[in-house]
Amino acid sequence: MFRSQVLVCGGTGCTSSNSTKIIEALKEQIREHGLENEVNVVRTGCFGLCALGPIMIVYPEGSFYSMVKVEDVPEIVEEHLLKGRVVTRLLYDETVEKDTVKSLNETQFYAKQQRVALRNCGVINPENIDEYIAFDGYQALAKCLTEYTPQQVVDVVKESGLRGRGGGGFPTGVKWSLAAANQADQKYVCCNADEGDPGAFMDRSVLEGDPHSVIEAMAIAGYAIGASQGYIYVRAEYPIAVHRLEIAIQQAREYGLLGKNIFGTGFDFDLDIRLGAGAFVCGEETALMTSIEGHRGEPRPRPPYPAVKGLFEKPTILNNVETYANIPQIILNGAEWFASIGTEKSKGTKVFALGGKIKHTGLVEVPMGTTLRTIVEEIGGGIPNGKKFKAAQMGGPSGGCVPAQCYDVKIDYDSLIQIGAMMGSGGLIVMDEDTCMVDIAKFFLEFTVDESCGKCTPCRIGIKRLYELLDKITRGNGTMEDLDTIEQLCYYIKDSALCGLGQTAPNPVLSTLRFFRDEYVAHVKDKTCPAGVCKHLIHYEIQEDKCKGCTLCSRVCPAEAISGTVKNPHTIDQSKCLKCGACMEKCKFGAIIKK
Amino acid sequence: MKTLAELQAIRDKARKEIEMRAETEDGIRVVVGMATCGIAAGARPVLNALVEEVSKENLSGVTITQTGCIGICQYEPVVEIFEPGKEKVTYVKMTPEKALRVVHSHLMNGEVVTEYTIGASAV
Q1: pTM of the entire structure?
Q2: What are the φ/ψ torsions at residue A5 (nearest 5 degrees)?
Q3: ipTM > 0.85 (yes/no)
């Protein structure tokens, strides 16, 4: 029995900031002090507060150490683990208050969160099935197999009001009942872990931190619709997630929780992993299944829907990782419990991946109906450097921007659609006043142009033309007619593209046009970029009266565009200037201005 | 694994290992002084004996933790027991054997082992 447990985050974020080395150093130091039988080191999944990584929690005290370095390890072992003195300087400052240490759950970041899908992330060792079982793991599967008929399972999911967390928000129970109603010799359960939305990483986090919850939920889904085989489609760029999934599936098989005759009930279910090569379009359900079948990942028209003719032309259900992670909790706590969280039409919680201009980059899980202001200002810690909130891009390249005037909108599926954005997978990129909205729209379009599979014309050519028009505007060559053309083209593409990728690609353009039309007009009419981002519309100047002739700017200029002699004002040759801004950054006298 | 009972058995066993990660607000806190003075006087075997015994007896709601020097170095190893709504009890000059008795008498039956407390020792 260990008297103390040290939990170190082994998610992708903390791993990239060296948590693996920290774990090694910890184990070594613990051995050196002869504590290996008293202190247990546990590598967990993501805690969510990625901005403060690498993260470590020491129990039973519950001390939350942030931004731990390898050099800090000897002090932690000697002071805390051996002598019981908490290393105050490493504590996350929000947990320290007037000489007392607060619980992590009382900090601003965690206090307003409600963790359902992420409940085990950062709490258990994902590579140890026993720890998942300790937190009621596989109890939901046992309950379904021994107490419920498949129809009852479908009913519970339906009554809970759970909707797909991958983007569309289709009611999960309805999806299951459609597949259950279709008779076939073989059906399939698939999991979409292709998380292609740049900036969203909750699915990765669940797979890394709590892989068994997805496995258990898929087995439950298999029982509900009558499928004996499941596939998890996960991108190969998530090596830690894939590795832990493999371990988890193996452990579940060894325990007989996957395989033949589970719990002696005669129910068979097994799972396999399929790796994706990282194409954005493979997150679209028909393209994903085409890819599992071994073909090029291209979408096909619907209907027939997957519930009728899906993988290998058999009835199939496909749900997102986060959706599955909710299922065991719904079974254990009941549909009423789940339906009591959230808003009228959007039940439960939603995980958001906070990124961009925000203090606490990371993962947060809040009840549906929480306002954007609460997420950004309170949980996310606000915008750094005293800048103002301008907008948030929700739903990645398929979503839209939510401007400051909608800061207090209660976020759920329907309210976001109303303001032209969408839930998407829950990526939330915060933008401050230094962001140019035309440039942002162009950025997301560049992504969809790259990722278009090319099968249908509206997407392949339409988005490209749209991108070219935006590019023209950011170069200062746009006309007011172009704005109308853009809008019209957006609607054409939305109406005629084959799959979700094309249909939603114009969203960032439409929503920025709707809320920030004045910025577009400034680019077109005044040939200026109000945020000072678009390179073709800005130039740098040296103010003669302020320049001391220190020559620093001419030395840092990569294009040798600045000339002048020592102690005399310098000048910028505009024809050579690359507008990189290096000179302005370096100038100690504030003599260089951007116009 | 073929039965629900087997699943429950694994759960109960694993739960003990991870119990300390749950936030307990109103349980009993057992604090062992583990500063240099405490360690030199033999606090570690005491701490480990407490952990082992509490786990063996399946006591829930008991957190065993350590602290630094509380200033009565001549009485180390010191074990303090905090119970909600009750006065703190301070045991001094502890040994692993005394620790076992404290677990059985104090933690399990609510009877303070008066002869080990600082009050008895100071006389």
Answers
A1: 0.88
A2: -130, 135
A3: no
